Amino acid sequence: MVTFARNEIVSSTQFVRGFAGFLQRMTKSIDEKIAVVKNNQMQAVLIPIDEYERLKSLEERTEQKEIFETVQERKNTPVSEYISYDDAMKKAGL
């Protein structure tokens, strides 16, 4: 679980009223993240664009790796276990 410092947690009202300041804190790398809380529940986290892009890149690489591994596993499927396109569509109810 991610932890937050006291100065990294703001209410939604504080966030709306001080948006420019919070955005500046992100662009100047003063804060690593800012959590927005509404009704005592965390609703969102503001992070720098570089961190967001890094996380999206990791997500894409993970997905590509999973697809690659699935393809590699399927290469080992014996021909006797193959099913025709028509049979697959019937099995799917299409």
Overview of the molecule:
With 94 residues, the protein is of the alpha+beta class. It has a domain at 6-48: YefM-like fold. The protein has four helices and three strands. It has helices at residues 12-17, 19-27, 49-75, 85-91, and strands at residues 9-11, 34-38, 41-46. The chain has a three-stranded mixed sheet with strand order 1-2-3. Strand 2 (34-38) and strand 3 (41-46) form a beta hairpin. It is elongated, with a radius of gyration of 23 Å. The mean pLDDT is 92. Belongs to the phD/YefM antitoxin family. It comes from Treponema saccharophilum DSM 2985. InterPro entries: YefM-like_sf (IPR036165).
Key features of this structure:
single chain; 94 residues; alpha+beta; YefM-like fold; three-stranded mixed sheet; 4 helices; elongated; YefM-like_sf; Antitoxin
Which structural category do the helix and sheet elements fall into?
A: alpha+beta
The SSE string, one letter per element, is EHHEEHH
Strand line-up of the largest beta sheet: 1-2-3
Multimerization status = single chain
Q: How is the biggest beta sheet arranged?
A: 3 strands, mixed
Number of E-type strands:
3
Task: Give helix % range.
Answer: 40-55%
Structural Rg: 23 Å
Give the uncertain stretches in residue-range form: none
Précis, in short:
By secondary structure, the chain is an alpha+beta fold. It has helices spanning 12-17, 19-27, 49-75, 85-91; strands at 9-11, 34-38, 41-46. It has a three-stranded mixed β-sheet.
